[in-house]
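During the no-cost extension, the postdoctoral fellow (Dr. R.K.) reprocessed legacy sequence entries with the updated structure-token encoder. One reprocessed record is reproduced below for audit purposes.
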Amino acid sequence: MSCLFTTRITELFNTRLPIVAGGMQWLSDADYVAAAARTGLMGFITAGSYPELEDLRREIRRCRELAEGLPFGVNVSMLPKLVEGEKTERIFDLIIEEGVRFVETAGRNPEPYLPKLHQAGIKVVHKVPTVRLALKAQEVGVDAVTVVGAECGGHPGMELVGTFVQAAVAARELSIPLIVGGGVGSGAHLIAALALGAEGVIIGTRFLVAEEIWAHRSFKERIVAARETDTTLMLQSVRNTLRALKNKTTEIVQQLEREHGDDMDISILMPYLSGKVGREAYQSGDTSLGALATGQAVAFADRIEPLAAIVGRLEQEAHTTLERLRSFGPLASCGAY
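Re-encoded structure tokens follow.
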């Protein structure tokens, strides 16, 4: 299928489509990211999935080979506050050494790292949950910004503004290229985002059922069965809102938050939130436990199939949406105005 659009996002990444396969902890490996590249998207390996730097280096090299020269990047999700032992500086040094051209950052202001990244010719896209933070990212000099709304899986922030509103406000206020996400699961969403002024969309949950995602088939079957009402919010008590698939873990965490209120100590929650528990759920297919980041776009993840097939359907839906809009006729013909 021919390219639908040329936007500043497709030009920035040199991709066929204005769609980003956002970095997903534990899941965005070389197989998935390279599949995104070959399909015409920008994808990001999640650095946080590789505690050992040399493992990350090997994954980057493997992705470069699988992507057949097409562009891809690395996601660096920094903790909101610098903590002892954090390896962010060394991760960026490795990314530079490996000649990666694109970085997706989140979680903390990337300003301290921008000079060295830009000097190396790397383009930086910063992901945020509010327009206020997007404007700050623009001010410090990122190359593009991703704004996610309350519908997104993972961390939608504390203010929980919906994607429809965020996209329009961000497009009005920003001058750098804008990607929007949260609840994006169909080609119609892509057309709507572009109509609102964005130049690309980010998709995570909709792609969880791609065959290239290494997670257990039982996990993917649970995603296929889920509806838009099967996710929930937690961790607002510790100011780190998370949208995840409803399960025993979310029930326990929410109960603890109700019991402790403003006195909640994050250490009480950590046994339930550990990344190890979530990774085991992906490995075993047992989705009853773990904080499994899932957005409301789960409603559109309706079958397990190759990523290229999912993207092909998105493209067809986008074409169908445009044809439906054209069927309404020229605006000038609408009444005596």
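The longest strand covers residues 123-128. The chain has two domains: 8-217+295-310, 231-284. The remaining legacy entries will be reprocessed before the final report is submitted.
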